[in-house]
Amino acid sequence: MPQGYTSWRTCSSSASSCSSESPAADVFTSAQTTGHYDRLVQCGSLREDAQQRYVLQRLAQLQHTLKTYSNSVYLNPPPPRLDPKDDNSQPQKVKGPSMTTAENKGGESPAKEEPPPRPPKGFYIYGDVGTGKTMLMDIFYSHVENTRKKRVHFNGFMLDIHKRIHRRKQSLPKRRLGNMFTYDPISPVAMEISSETCLLCFDEFQVTDIADAMILKQLFETLFKTGVVVVATSNRPPEDLYKNGLQRDTFLPFIDVLKEYCHTICLDAGIDYRRLDKVASGKLYYLTGEPGAEAFLDTLFEDLALRQRSVTGPRVLTVLGRDVTLEKTCGSIADCTFDELCGRPLGASDYLEMARLFDTVFIRHIPMLTLTLKDQARRFTTLIDNFYDKKVRVVLLAAVPLDRLFVHSGGEDERDRQLLDDLGLSGEAAERLTLFTAEEEIFAFQRTVSRLMEMQSEKYWMEGDRSHSKNRMDT
């Protein structure tokens, strides 16, 4: 790899190489957040973009507010003052020297406690792929001087929510005949999260699962009312979330809640920066038909394995009580086939565990992905989303070039028709559901191709190298 290449993270940490400014390391103000962006532009790590600058300025204002912010007042509001005229609610008072004449005579009570001010509004930033949404959120997050903050991929967040809901349901006493009761765990789970953090940053906010769609309003309404500030990125405007999804009418109130508590900003200059001026980290995307492609991947794996303090062999991952076996691994490297990763029923939780354990994953024999292979394609997009978020490096062997990897054709298959029959859907309702699945896949495909372009860059490869880092990635 060429020497002297500096990523935006390392560039920002070395003011001497990027700028003559030397701000105190322990003091970050909102002005320094935009200064961070300026230094990246001066370094050549970023191109000047007026829309990005505007968004960052808005985020910097929120960053300044969060420095002294706490949501504890919303979690533990002061008890309401009782009305002395209400005999049922007023505790019996004993006359004493500390009581005023008005109180002894049942006069008006002192002024009631003022309700706490509304919490700061967050941001929902949407736009096309590669426009810098995640980068800006990461810059903002890194400068927030508040320890009660959390940044997470939205898939991972919803997995955690469902785990917490399941755990609470499992802890309930067994129900007996004649002693049935209902229990709604969503608000308690939201309160639990609110007690842990006052800032949540979500990457790739999207709703494709009806199970998620049905709980989002109650979940987020409780989070917002308990003072949690949300900053999220998405490829869709709020109005298009879960568009054409099943039972969308019950989801629509969530959009109103989101817009009430978050400013909505469109970041879309029409440029996919992931495709521009990327220094390639050697060749990381190979075609099956290329002479010697398999042999080159074998050699690259062996070279990387020499640096590992381990032997090559299978590895069993335990995920949610299930065993997932990868046949060829060595330390932090895994050599897999597409069918091994996406041809069996794996999901985000499995891919997150792989991202925790491995910093480099080979993926061989990727076919052209059409809508008839939508299950495998969905898993592949989920895999890349999670690997990209955790900076996992990938080496790919595919049947076709990257720009032809996803083909928006193939359409409905027998299982689709059977599903629509089972759901009792036909006509316009069936058409809306089919459109929903096709649109979501196309959005996901575009995002995946853009991310795979960036994942072939030297900058990405260097950032993903964990061999010199003592800190393991978050689970």
Short description:
The chain is of the alpha/beta class and 475 residues long. The chain has helices spanning 8-12, 15-18, 30-43, 50-66, 72-75, 101-104, 133-143, 154-170, 186-194, 210-225, 252-261, 293-305, 338-342, 348-357, 374-389, 414-422, 427-455, 458-463; strands spanning 122-126, 149-153, 199-203, 229-234, 262-266, 285-287, 313-319, 322-330, 333-337, 360-366, 369-370, 393-398, 406-407. Keywords: ATP-binding, Nucleotide-binding.
Name some characteristics of this structure.
42% helix, single chain, Rossmann fold, six-stranded mixed sheet, alpha/beta, 13 strands, five-stranded parallel sheet
Biggest β-sheet: count, sense, barrel?
6 strands, mixed
- What is the mean pLDDT? 80
Helix content: 40-55%
Strand order of the largest sheet: 6-12-10-9-8-7
CATH topology of the largest domain: Rossmann fold
Low-confidence stretches: 1-28, 89-105, 419-426, 429-436, 470-475
Structural category: alpha/beta
What's the end-to-end separation, in Å? 30 Å
Beta-strand level of the residues, as a percent range? 5-15%
What would the principal axes of the Cα set say about the shape? globular
